[in-house]
Amino acid sequence: MDFEFTSEDEAFRTEARDWLAAHADSARDRRTWERTLGKAGWIGIGWPEGGYGNRTATLTQQVAWAEEYARSGAPPRSGHIGENLLAPTLIIHGSEEQKTRFLPPVAAGEELWCQGYSEPGAGSDLAGVRTSAVREGASYRITGQKIWTSLAHEADWCFVLARTDAGSRRHQGLSFLLVPMDQPGRIEVRPIRQMTGTSEFNEVFFDGAHARAEHVVGGEGQGWRVAMSLLGFERGVSTLAQQIGFAQELGRVVRAAVRTGAVDDPVVRARLVRQWAELRAMRWNALRTLGGSGDAGAPSAAKLLWANWHQRLGELAVQVRGAEASAGPADWVPAAPYELDPDQHLFLFSRADTIYGGSDQVQRTIIAERVLGLPREPKGAV
Ligand SMILES: Cc1cc2nc3c(=O)[nH]c(=O)nc-3n(C[C@H](O)[C@H](O)[C@H](O)COP(=O)(O)OP(=O)(O)OC[C@H]3O[C@@H](n4cnc5c(N)ncnc54)[C@H](O)[C@@H]3O)c2cc1C
To answer: What does the DSSP 8-state code read for residue 81?
Structure first.
């Protein structure tokens, strides 16, 4: 596909850049920032339908916005789960009432969402979900545990995959429910403490929590179909923004290598150049895929490439700095939570890249079975 930016796209890019330059520094609080974005109409520009308070943009304009956002140094988004995962799913599978109720507050940056899929016994094997939702009159009563729920401690709502048919197995009998998080005594969010003492994701316990019957998306028992459809939105245009972030990180590692002299080592030089070349290839591949010329294995191949590229960059980031990179902050108080510096953060957090959004092993199985036509993995192989 010929992926060119027209003069309208460039005008859109300039508008986005100017707006971000004027506002990105002003909002340090994540909730306020979401509302600021919402008020200016920058949330939901990629939704296939307008009219919910969002503006609509062409694919190339979405790319321009994502790239400018990454370049601007604006705060990380806490509304992306609602905007990029829930909203497109509701647009396809939701009722008119659900769209009218839930899309405008997402577009306004007023309501934040989290994703209640994974459980202690159901991660890669999501069909093992055991959380139950029992119909009682006009609502469902939800009991069970979710884990690794990013942003649950900030979210107003959670979309929960739960078993509404008690005797069902695997992909059958599941439903996709929209659950309000503010249910003291019925929903408990326990942050998972990381090695640094800080927390980004959580365990969520449901003890008789309520969801309204009309807040089941796609109909009772259709949860698997809706849940899989949502996972299909997990990447897309944001891949390009992610690559702008990668380029900035690579630039930082190159500068550190020059500063410390690590760049005199020919092996380090070769690895830096390899990272650069692979990043270029990933960009063209992402543009090609967005343009619709990818095959069934393209999303899995892209995930394998970027996740492993990013981990290697993390390893390089600490290698070029040497022993200094493993020290904590100078003013650290023993046992107190602390912030990692950007290279330490890159090194440690990129370990998660090959796990979330479908692990490496799962992506390879998808390619093996759906693209290479290999026999299906024997049951109980792992
Ligand atoms: C940073 C981060 C954020 C997350 N945020 C969320 C969130 O907001 N909401 C949510 O619901 N979940 C979230 N998750 C959870 C994530 O989806 C799961 O971690 C992921 O699905 C893997 O599941 P698991 O951790 O149970 O590992 P398991 O599925 O137990 O896998 C353990 C290991 O076994 C391998 N494995 C499993 N099955 C097979 C197989 N059939 N063949 C070969 N190898 C196999 C895996 O690749 C992995 O290496 C998040 C995870 C991370 C790391």
So the answer is: I
